Amino acid sequence: MNILSLFVLIPLLMMAGLFFAGNLKQIRCVVTIGASLLLALAIGLVIAYLEERSAGETAEMLFTADTVWYAPLHIHYSVGVDGISVSMLLLSAVIVFTGILASWKMELLPKEYFMWFCLLSVGVFGFFISVDLFTMFLFYEVALIPMYLLIGVWGSGKKEYSAMKLTLMLMGGSALLLLGILGIYFFSAAAGAPSMNLLEISRTHLPVESQRWIFPLIFTGFGILGALFPFHTWSPDGHASAPTAVSMLHAGVLMKLGGYGCFRVAIYLMPEAAQELSWIFIILTGISVVYGAYSAIVQTDLKYINAYSSVSHCGLVLFAILMLNRTALNGAVLQMLSHGLMTALFFALIGMIYGRTHTRDIREMGGLMKVIPFLGVCYVIAGLASLGLPGLSGFVAEMTVFVGAFQHTDTFHRVFTIVACTSIVATAVYILRTVGKLLYGPVLREEQSHLADAVWYERLTAILLIAAIAGIGLAPLWLSDMIRESLLPIIEHFQ
Amino acid sequence: MELTPIILLLPLLSFLLTGLAGTKLKPAAAGGIGTLSLALSALLAYLTAGRYFSTPRVEGVYEKIVPFNFEWLRFTENLHIDLGVLLDPISVMMLVVITTVSLMVHIYSLGYMKGEKGFQRYYAFLSLFTFSMLGLVVATNIFQMYIFWELVGVSSYLLIGFYYTKPEAVAAAKKAFIVTRFADLGFLTGILLLSYHTHTFDFGILTSGDSGVFAGAAGTTFLGCSVISWALSLIFVGGAGKSALFPLHIWLPDAMEGPTPVSALIHAATMVVAGVFLVARLFPVYHAEAPEVLTGIAVVGAVTSLYAAIVACVQTDIKRVLAFSTISQIGFMMVGLGVSGMGGHDGLGYMASLFHLFTHAMFKALLFLGAGAIIHAVHSNEMARMGGLYKYMPVTHLTFLVACLAISGIPPFSGFFSKDEILAATFQFNPVLGTILSFTAALTAFYMFRLYYRIFWNRPAHYDHAPHEAPGSMSFPLIFLAAITLVAGFIPFGQFVSSDGVAYTIHLDWKIAGGSVAIAGAAIGLATLLYRKENPTAGKLAAAFPLLYRAACKRFYIDEIYLFVTKKLIFNGISRPVAWFDRHIIDGALNGAASLTEKLSLAIRGLQSGHVQQYALLTLGGTLLIVLGILLV
To answer: Which 3 state secondary structure label does DSSP give A450?
Structure first.
């Protein structure tokens, strides 16, 4: 059994276990054990990966396995990881684990809820381990569908509308992707070596004319999930309606599928088109970064603030990818990790605060720091990470992106980098505005003056995520080196 | 020397300990840990300074030592952030200044903050600030400096907002952070530009004097200035933000909402001079690559110091008077750097500026701590609630007087020596600039003694309880700092710190010194006349120039301009329309597409009715149409 396949198998087994679970206690037991196993597995994988690399293993992908699935179309179940996918797997495991803790008190149909949640995890983990385009696409779809039900059934507010909007928009992206993937397959066949395998296609050179129309399809398709302007509007509504853990997983991991796909498929397989056409997307992502930040300044719903902030931060991921150099790409991956952790922490805390005050409107809350100091301090830390305080992950990621992007020799790229840099001021504005209204000042409402502070599973969620954020922020070198190493094959296409 | 990293580690440990333990720790324990670790740090800093300056010079210059450095994050082959410790005369001097003032503030706070809620949190933040500030001054590269730059910014934010239930404190903290963040954007962009052309962050390489480093930027100009000038100007913007130079000064007066010892440490002695330190650190680069930027710095400094001195004359909140006086004095330091050349007598400005930084840190901390003792005694910041305090608080009174004399430039107090050197250097550079500074110095003496008389003499306010002298933990730092202020002027500062590192012997220029002492004396005399006793002339004077008086009271409306830009332009003019655009245009287009699809499908729904007859009819009709079509064509 390949170690990577376990990432798919464990959530499947969890679903089976849930099927037989009788009461809430057993359900919790199954999901906790499963999520802990996944987390342990992910940590083990990072260690094993680093050991292999330090032992001098130079293959592009490690822990590979390959089984023919459907021979006529060259579809394989093919898995393998490099430093980038390893780090994304670790991120996903952390967020699945904390997401389950955050849904500890799920009372409505807990069995069904966790089953869909596990299916979502199957999709996410499967996506990151795949090196076969078709398998990748399959897992991608597996991750999207449960979202519809999780928001539609367990959500709040205008949940049906949001669930439908989110699913339709992302499905629209999938349609573009499928077209692009088929295009890649048929042109690789025309080039003499029909294949769905990423590594093989990257060695056969796709004709530049075909790249020119496939690249926009794939980049937009994945970009929709990565909140590419102007296809980002599913994000504020979707996040606002989704239950806490789903928001965490969605913004924390699912949106990263977009960024990951953009460079694993779009940039990696179509380097010429990427170089030619990147300017269009640089403009769009540049807009995302600044526009998201300015939109966040006037929002009053905590989830909307965070959703627009995600548009800005994820915009920076795509922006960095388009700079097509090693440092910026490294920054993009770091930003994915950092944003994933930060935003999961934010959504978790928003859920916890909402559970106490029953409102997410910052005009209706105030002075909560005095009432719920633990949650208050965590919120401030999340905010500081988001505005790029050194010592927390946001700083490392953003600075790598900015310095990397600024190394581009074209003035156009450097001017846009400075435009993107200006977002650090707007970010400070909306974060401090929110923190000021929500936590500081006198307690606004009488009924908010006696709220209970965090309980153990809430504390554990917050502490785990903060530890990860501070871990990356304090000692980034090993992670950044691991990613940097793995970027070499991708970057070679541009030299 | 090998012990220098420990100077930084001690406050960091103290922060982690008191920060993580929180209220589980007794207040006294938290205060004890903080103070003790700082005392050790200060001791080590003195040892380091002693060892460093007693090491023989090499070719007349103290060597730069890097006892500790490691790679923290790598961007490219050449660009990597290291964290390390760089010892050279200015960083060693700063180590001494920071640990001394910080230690005094730690001791003082034991008394001042006694019984406050959040005492542990207060000490945790103080430790965090001290750690960050130390990290800033020993930075081996510009990015390390930026890291700690941001950290001092956030510590300042946390400490200004210490009384977080008070809306004014929260607003002031936010304002301070955002204004300095805006300036930091300049700093960051400057770093990006500079590193893009020089391929390094390292101070050692940047300031080595090897012009080859900047060869990559040769010929690249923008709007008539070289790209290096642009980069250095942008970096200076960062420094101007932290150092509260006009027009980025607006956050500092509001920052007085924080506890008074914090104002003494952060907003008077250490953090606000970070901009001066930044320019001093990069001085060789400014001097060699962008002398025109240095001139700009001198002008900005002079405008700032004059502006702040005028405003300080009419403020009635004692902490705000001190805040504006800080802004004004930092302006002096910036002018010193701006007018300086390199080496020997030309480099007088550089030496004087850092000397002033040193003496100012001591006497300004003393003034703030004194103000704290007064506020502690009368429970108000307003001058109107004070008066006649000399007989209640003799120690505070005397030490405050020492500081007032020092800042006014009266010999033999320390401020006289350092300020006089700045004046000399400025006159040597440009008489107009020198005259402006001399006038500002006169204003300084005037408003400081206005402050002094209105607190300690004048008409005593009605006190509910008789004001009492500060306890020992608070009066000891006052006495200690006053002692330093008395003797610091006699330190042969030029022997340690100078523009090119070569020892420089200070000669007092009595022509200028005599003049400035006379002017200061006259200003003090005027203040004595107006404020020693209650005197209606002061009010009449204000009424004689109503426009100027009102404008100065309103700080020349700079805050209102900012409010207009942020509230009206950015919030209502950009953010609201952007958010509206997003909800109504972008999302509207999407919803429009969805409802269009819905309408279309409703329109063609009739075709799929489920009635077999209808299908048969349609099939038949369709077939007939096709057949007809084929036949006819």
So the answer is: coil
